[in-house]
Amino acid sequence: MTTFRRLTGRVLTALGTLVFVLVLNFVIFRAMGDPKHDLARNPNLTESAQAALIKERGLDQSQWVQFTRYLKDTLTGDLGTSFITNRPVSDELLNALPNTLIVVGVSTVLASLLGPWLGLLAAWKRGRTRDTLLTQGSVVLYSMPSFWLGMVLIAVFAQWWQLLPTGLGSTPGSTATGWAHVEDVARHAVLPVATLTLGLLAQYAVNMRSAVVDTMQEDYVLTARAIGLAPRAVRNRHIVRNAMLPVVTVIGLNLGFVLGGAITVEALFSWPGIGQLTLEAIHGKDYPMLQGLFLLSSALVIAMNLATDLLYGRLDPRIRD
């Protein structure tokens, strides 16, 4: 019963946060400007076309009517129509999301595996050469802006050695299908994936090292060593699992933020994903698209936060109790 109450409480909290985001999503973009005025400034539309478009999208109604219509449409999966492409926002998001998932998914998996492992290696030999090299290298990568790291990778691997393409999601004009198309996309994804992976990996390594160093000072670890357990058993059974708690939090939250916020990397490599779509919507003042992007990003952060919170209960029995 306690577990059920805890699960219910977390889910209700997440739903409440999502409702708040829905309201904020409507208010914040109306505060930025009136969509009617932006449509009226479009030189490609005649006055009659502007009036018809404003009426079609309900922009001539009161704010309350617009808000109720917005809630109804959002709950039924209708996120509106893009001002730029005149296509449903949901369709545009579904087209761009797989490309972002390729980069973010691979980056997250690689960083989540390598980062904590490198942090553990550094902390286990604290104060030695390996610890110094790994820690300083991680700090340098962690503090390095993603756009600058991406430009360095482009300069080295695309311009200097000419091993990889500089950007785009695939070769322009390519008619490849099947595995040839997969290979083409994979080659174009290498540099964006490497840029995101190195930044995330460094962050996870620094967090893991700090958590391991703190955990090694705990009484239960000292007791395990005192009773004669092998160092490997102490590390694997008593240190790693507890040290992973803060790292799991960072990984879970980062997954939501990175998925919706890999704007810099996607813009640098002209990768056709959510980040590139966000830039185009900002430049074009495409409010329905920006609303859809904000809602998607917020929902992902909330979902990842909920999943991380529930995972805590699996990693630490004290939280379940």
Please describe what this structure looks like.
With 321 residues, the chain is mostly helical. The chain is built from 14 helices and no strands. It has helices at 2-32, 35-40, 47-56, 63-75, 89-124, 129-143, 146-160, 178-215, 219-226, 231-261, 263-268, 274-283, 287-315, 317-320. Helix 1 (2-32) runs antiparallel to helix 13 (287-315), helix 5 (89-124) runs antiparallel to helix 6 (129-143) and helix 9 (219-226) packs antiparallel against helix 10. The chain is flat. The N and C termini lie close together (11 Å). The relative contact order is 0.14. The mean pLDDT is 81.
Note the main attributes of this structure.
mainly alpha; about 325 residues
Short summary:
The protein has 321 residues and is an all-alpha fold.
- Distance from N terminus to C terminus (CA atoms, Å) equals 11 Å
Give the strand content. under 5%
Number of strands: 0
- Unreliable sequence segments: none
| Main pleated sheet | none
Per-chain topology:
Layout: H1 2-32, H2 35-40, H3 47-56, H4 63-75, H5 89-124, H6 129-143, H7 146-160, H8 178-215, H9 219-226, H10 231-261, H11 263-268, H12 274-283, H13 287-315, H14 317-320
